[in-house]
Hints:
Shape: globular
Low-confidence stretches: none
Oligomer: single chain
Radius of gyration: 18 Å
Largest sheet: 7 strands, antiparallel
Mean pLDDT: 85
Amino acid sequence: MTMDAASHNEEAIETVYKLIKDIEYAMLTTVSQEGLVSRPMKTQDAAFDGTLWFLTKKDTSKFHELLHNKQVNVAYAGQSYVSVRGEAELVESAEKVRQFWNPMYEKLLETTYDDPNLVLIKVNADAAEYWDYHNKFKMAKFLFSRLIGRNTEGTDLNQSVELH
């Protein structure tokens, strides 16, 4: 990877992190035998470096779906909208579970942090697409262009980035 490509990649990762850091829940989409399935998941508090972390149990459908197909999408909706495409990895690490553990999980997952049934889902992001609606200048430019019938391609409201 050239210096320009590495710098662009770091910038893309930083932009995605800024857009998702205050959005507590995401929709994780996996592939089941019947097709795509989405469910809300709490993103773990970790700086986005190209990976996202989620906590689940081994006796869930998403765990079994990921054993058969690791392709996932993670969608965030808040002041901005972000869609992250990647590959999931199931990580069994009591240390990592303790790092991410929050007392609310005891009620949500009906278990304790030392439950051997707990597993982490690590999503290695390949690409992301985002709609930066909280940037008022970009939004105004986009809406003005639409109102007067101009092409909105150059408004930068919507971007796709590779995250390798």
